[in-house]
């Protein structure tokens, strides 16, 4: 069983391959000793990608909403390093579609701290003009950070890509939330982007990733709820 | 008034051959037509109403001189029901055939085959029978103008059922469009009795708005590359101060009223089976044996219920009792079109003894042999019931017979009240209708798909539709901007516009993709995502025969292996794959009955008033069965009966919980809203509210701590409709739901198409995410305005709740009890039927799940 402990900040402290990490209710991962904030699947400009591709006019505010959420974490935690764990843009042209304000805010994230863009399948080349280091994967504090989880046992892997969501049921009522998912050996982060959808963690896509009993950290408005397999439901 | 010999000889001969004389209202309709006037005919069913509507067209077409070029559609008939369009087609063919008229009449609905549709496009029938949704599609056709240029008459059947809805808005806009194509087109409405015919006339008619003097120096709008739509000249010319606002005076609608003779007074009875009425429930199961005997004694009976699942249930029970093998059929909206059509045909042939049906048969189809209408469970409104009773006995001189079968004690009161209301001919009223802007958005996109338009012309055209007569230029402009770019303060989409201005300053759809999307998203009915029910089992079931469909939520209540009733048979639920539920027959199993929910229709304000009246006036009790009288007198002894104008509120402990039950009789929607708002207040008061259930009559809240000593007047103070409402509404799932509906109608998001999401992983990107982001970043956006308005009127019934709070101010009779009261028993039995409320409950579920886990992990 994964060891976990609720923190007064509403987060959940979890031991991951013997490294203590903090799951934040924002959906970010916080490595306190390294003062590193990790967020996955921001999908900036997903809204405008619908307009560009299908002429569907979704509210074009998803990027600034995601940046607002990121700002709240940065204000609270003052990270020295900020890692985007892939699929930071919804598509390769996303960077070019950024509103001027949003572009400047993204630029600003790199000032006074290290900004790292791990690439994902939606943004395989990383940003063209925005500052920051572009990497495939990184090792940090004994953990391996990459966008897409590799098959088989990967102790210490921290990944995104899958957009985990937990459907939790009690009697007749159910609730579906984005979530962290871990077995104590590897961790998959929830998608951080405002328009990023969720995939039920009982979906086949998660099978084979986890060995031991799975712990889901479901995101609530002010805290992360630890939920065990028993309470999970398929969609 | 025209004399009967005003009819052409062949028509006179046809009437005579049938042994008929033309009715006064039929001749009156002909007179109106000859004078070129529109008309609204209000007549009871069975009065030859449909023929009255078509007679002028049949005569005109019969007398039409032959011509060389093929003619376009002469008469367009629009019915709210597909089945009705098909049925009227059948009925219309009889006089056409018998008189040998050279007239082609054909229906076109969502069920019509592609080849027939294609042929109709090339060779239009003289009379086309269709639905409002098909009209919206017509309006979006390229070439619609030409297709309808010969149109002389539009007939709207069951006008009373369509007008006060978004479908009615869309239809009114469609009529305005047709009027542009065919300026001589007459509008004709056919309606059952309505409370206020003038509202229907306004909806149906052309609202002529006095035009301002010609605008001097009118120039076309020149698009400026890269400029925002606001900068683009939406208005013709001149400074903004000269923008046409809702100009001029709205004149009397040009629709004359024609009244048919009233039929004989219906005979309405309330069935008290075996002398008892159950405490609670929605199915009237207790009375089924007697209902069966009554069906046996009748010639043909229509058995109305309020929901599909009640229909399945009643059908199942009746067949279990059907020793004589009477032909009893089932008809509801989830059955496949083919199956419904079969039932309708059998009914028309007189082959059936009874049909169990939902509102799908509320209207229309002319079945002469029905001699009895049975309403299982409460009718919910007097007007609806009059409509249903009208399905029986189409001979005007004989009374229709109707039987109410209440399913519970509160329903008994309601049935009694409804029976009295019908005898006194008191009907439920409707408020005037203001056209919805999401519907307007869909219509504008449709117009742009059909042909380029000039903004000011379209503005005038739209305002000629009754529901939009008061539309301001600002709102119109906002809707156009929404259609074009999404209408965001952040001008992110100017380069992706869905409609674009041409060099001549006309607006048109951007490209073929935009047109295609419009076609896929037409309509103002939002149904819940539907799951196909197919026969198939095993691990990898493939493509079994489809037996019907059901709302997505239905299968959430079932686990594989469960049995349920559908289309009158018992099935085992095997699996859900994408949008298909696989089932296999399980004829010998006892079906597990999933929760029925209550009625989907809220109790009408008018009936609710009568029920309240009946409760406190003991003289009225004598009309009630013994056990209901006893229930009322127990209530009087054990708790209290509210006096006139009072609302009863009880508090009592039960188990580990404390309950508050109050009885406003204001309908489920208003009660649910009230319960949500009370929950917030009780939460702030530290009472620890845990949940609630509501039905049409009462609401039941329960909490961790007692509520006996609360200041009840303060708790129900009207200011709950202020800040509390605003705060709660924005968070509520109802607001999210109405946002979704508006966004779908307006084309902001696309309807889900079968198969569209089948492939790949089910990453759900829900409209809730869109809603949350939009609410935060542009709270005054058009779609949020639409959603708030809808939530307030439809889903939440805030107007009714407001009336209720005013009514009971200072008149709440609070009775603190030590145990449950007779009235509260049905409300306790409702618990467990409902979903837990809102977000707070979501957190509770997660917290509980976490507590379980901690207990499990503890040594």
Query: Spatial order of the strands in the main sheet of chain B?
Result: 3-4-2-5-6-1-7
* CATH architecture identity of chain A: 4-Layer Sandwich
Instruction: Report the sheet with the most strands of chain B, covering strand number, pairing sense and barrel closure.
Output: 7 strands, parallel
Shape estimate of chain A: globular
- Count of spatially separate domains of chain A: 1
The number of E-state strands of chain B comes to 25
Descriptive report:
- The complex is a heterodimer of chains A (235) and B (859).
- In chain A, strands 9, 10, 11, 12, 13, 14, 15, 16 and 17 form a nine-stranded mixed β-sheet that branches. Chain A has an eight-stranded mixed β-sheet with strand order 1-2-3-4-5-6-7-8, covered by helices on one side.
- Chain A contains four helices and 17 strands.
- The longest helix of chain A is centred in the first third of the chain and has 16 residues, at 62-77.
- Chain A is of the alpha/beta class and 235 residues long.
- Chain A has helices at 46-54, 62-77, 94-97, 100-109; strands at 4-6, 12-16, 19-23, 29-31, 36-39, 81-85, 114-118, 133-135, 137-140, 143-146, 157-159, 164-170, 173-182, 187-188, 199-200, 215-219, 224-228.
- Chain A has one domain (4-231): Purple Acid Phosphatase, chain A, domain 2, CATH 3.60.21.
- In chain A, 54% of the residues are buried.
- With 859 residues, chain B is of the alpha/beta class.
- In chain B, helix 5 (114-122) links the parallel strand 3 (105-108) and strand 4.
- In chain B, 50% of the residues are buried.
- At the A-B interface, helix 1, helix 2, strand 12, strand 13 and strand 15 of A face helix 19, helix 27 and helix 31 of B.
């Amino acid at each position: 069983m994964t060891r976990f402990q609720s923190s007064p900040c509403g987060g959940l402290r979890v031991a991951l391959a013997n490294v203590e990490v903090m799951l934040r209710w924002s959906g970010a991962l916080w490595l306190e000793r390294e003062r590193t904030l990790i967020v996955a699947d921001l999908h900036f400009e997903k809204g405008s990608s619908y307009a560009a591709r299908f002429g569907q006019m979704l509210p074009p505010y998803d990027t600034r909403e995601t940046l607002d959420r990121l700002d709240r974490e940065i204000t609270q935690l003052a990270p020295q390093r900020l890692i985007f764990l892939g699929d930071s843009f919804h598509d390769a042209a996303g960077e070019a579609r950024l509103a001027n304000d949003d572009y400047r805010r993204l630029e600003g994230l790199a000032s006074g701290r290290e900004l790292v863009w791990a690439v994902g399948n939606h943004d395989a080349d990383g940003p063209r003009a925005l500052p920051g280091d572009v990497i495939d994967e990184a090792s940090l504090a004994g953990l391996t950070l990459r966008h897409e989880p590799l098959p088989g046992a990967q102790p210490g892997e921290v990944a995104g890509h899958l957009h985990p969501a937990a459907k939790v049921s009690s009697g007749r009522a159910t609730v579906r939330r984005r979530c962290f998912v871990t077995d104590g050996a590897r961790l998959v982060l929830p998608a951080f982007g405002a328009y990023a959808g969720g995939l039920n963690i009982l979906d086949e896509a998660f099978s084979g990733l986890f060995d031991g009993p799975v712990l889901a950290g479901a995101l609530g408005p002010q805290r992360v709820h630890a939920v065990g397999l028993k309470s999970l439901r398929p969609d | 008034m025209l004399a009967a010999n005003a009819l052409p000889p062949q028509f006179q001969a046809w009437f005579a051959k049938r042994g008929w004389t033309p009715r006064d209202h039929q001749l009156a309709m002909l007179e109106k037509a000859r004078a070129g006037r529109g008309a609204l005919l209000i007549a009871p069913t069975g009065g030859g109403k449909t023929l009255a509507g078509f007679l002028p067209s049949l005569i005109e077409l019969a007398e039409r001189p032959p011509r060389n070029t093929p003619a376009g559609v002469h008469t367009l008939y629009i019915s709210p029901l597909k089945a009705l369009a098909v049925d009227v087609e059948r009925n219309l063919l009889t006089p056409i055939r018998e008189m040998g008229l050279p007239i082609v009449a054909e229906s076109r609905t969502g069920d019509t085959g592609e080849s027939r549709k294609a042929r109709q496009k090339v060779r239009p029938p003289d009379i086309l029978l269709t639905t409002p949704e098909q009209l919206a599609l017509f309006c979006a056709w390229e070439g619609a103008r030409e297709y309808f240029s010969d149109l002389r008459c539009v007939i709207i059947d069951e006008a009373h059922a369509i007008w006060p809805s978004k479908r009615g808005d869309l239809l009114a806009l469609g009529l305005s469009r047709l009027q542009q194509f065919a300026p001589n087109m007459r509008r004709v409405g056919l309606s059952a009795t309505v409370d206020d015919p003038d509202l229907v006339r306004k909806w149906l008619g052309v609202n002529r708005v006095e035009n301002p003097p010609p605008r001097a120096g009118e120039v076309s709008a020149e698009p400026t590359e890269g400029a925002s739509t606001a900068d683009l000249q939406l208005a013709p010319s001149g400074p903004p101060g000269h923008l046409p606002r809702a100009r001029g005076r709205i004149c009397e609608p040009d629709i004359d009223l024609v009244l048919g003779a009233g039929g004989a007074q219906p005979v309405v009875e309330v069935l008290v089976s075996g002398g008892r009425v159950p405490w609670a429930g929605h199915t009237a199961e207790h009375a089924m044996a007697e209902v069966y005997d009554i069906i046996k004694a009748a010639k043909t009976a229509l058995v109305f219920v309020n929901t599909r699942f009640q229909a399945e249930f009643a059908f199942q029970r009746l067949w279990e009792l059907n020793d004589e093998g009477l032909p009893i059929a089932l008809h509801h909206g989830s059955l496949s079109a083919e199956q419904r059509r079969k039932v309708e045909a059998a009914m028309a042939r007189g082959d059936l003894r009874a049909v169990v049906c939902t509102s799908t048969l509320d209207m229309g189809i002319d079945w002469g042999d029905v001699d009895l209408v049975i309403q299982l469970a409460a009718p919910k409104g007097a007007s609806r019931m009059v409509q249903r009773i009208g399905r029986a006995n189409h001979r005007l001189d004989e009374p229709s017979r109707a039987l109410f079968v209440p399913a519970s004690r509160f329903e008994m009161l309601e049935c009694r009240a409804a029976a009295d209301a019908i005898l006194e001919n008191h009907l439920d009223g409707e408020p005037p209708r203001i056209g919805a802007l999401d519907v307007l958005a869909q219509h504008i996109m449709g117009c742009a798909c059909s042909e380029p338009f000039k903004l000011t012309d379209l503005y005038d055209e739209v305002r000629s539709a009754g529901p939009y007569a008061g539309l301001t230029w600002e709102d119109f402009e906002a809707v156009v901007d929404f259609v074009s770019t999404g209408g965001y303060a952040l001008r992110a989409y100017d380069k992706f516009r869905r409609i674009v201005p041409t060099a001549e300053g006309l607006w048109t759809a951007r490209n073929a993709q935009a047109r295609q999307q419009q076609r896929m998203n037409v309509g103002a009915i939002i149904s819940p995502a539907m799951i196909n029910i197919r026969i198939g089992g095993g691990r990898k079931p493939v493509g079994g025969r489809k037996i019907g469909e059901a709302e997505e939520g239905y299968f959430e209540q079932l686990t594989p292996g469960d049995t349920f009733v559908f289309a009158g048979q018992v099935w085992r639920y095997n699996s859900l794959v994408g949008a298909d539920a696989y089932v296999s027959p399980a004829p010998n199993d006892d079906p597990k009955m999933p929760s029925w929910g209550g009625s989907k229709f809220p109790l009408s304000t008018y009936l609710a008033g009568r029920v309240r009246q009946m409760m406190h006036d003991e003289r009225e009790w004598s009309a009630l069965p013994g056990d209901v009288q006893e229930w009322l007198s127990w209530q009087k002894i054990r708790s209290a009966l509210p006096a006139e104008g009072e609302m009863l509120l009880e508090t009592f402990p039960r188990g580990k919980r404390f309950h508050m039950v109050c009885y406003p009789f204001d309908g489920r929607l208003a009660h649910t809203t009230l319960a949500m708002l009370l929950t917030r207040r009780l939460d702030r008061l530290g009472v620890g509210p845990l949940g609630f259930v509501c039905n049409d009559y009462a609401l039941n809240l329960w909490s961790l701590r007692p509520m006996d000593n609360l200041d009840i007047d303060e708790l129900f103070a009207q200011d709950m409709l202020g800040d509390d409402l605003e705060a709660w509404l924005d968070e509520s799932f109802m607001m999210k739901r109405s946002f979704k509906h508006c966004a779908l109608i307006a084309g902001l998001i696309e309807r889900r198409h079968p198969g569209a999401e089948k492939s790949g992983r089910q990453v759900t990107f829900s409209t809730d995410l869109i809603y949350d982001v939009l609410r935060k970043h542009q709270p005054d956006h058009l779609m949020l305005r639409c959603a708030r308005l809808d939530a307030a009127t439809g889903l939440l019934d805030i107007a009714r709740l407001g009336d209720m709070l005013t009514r009971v101010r200072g008149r709440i009779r609070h009775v603190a009890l030590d145990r449950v009261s007779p009235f509260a028993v049905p409300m306790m039995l409702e618990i467990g039927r409902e979903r837990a409320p809102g977000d707070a409950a979501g957190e509770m579920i997660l917290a509980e799940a976490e507590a379980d886990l901690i207990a499990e992990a503890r040594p």
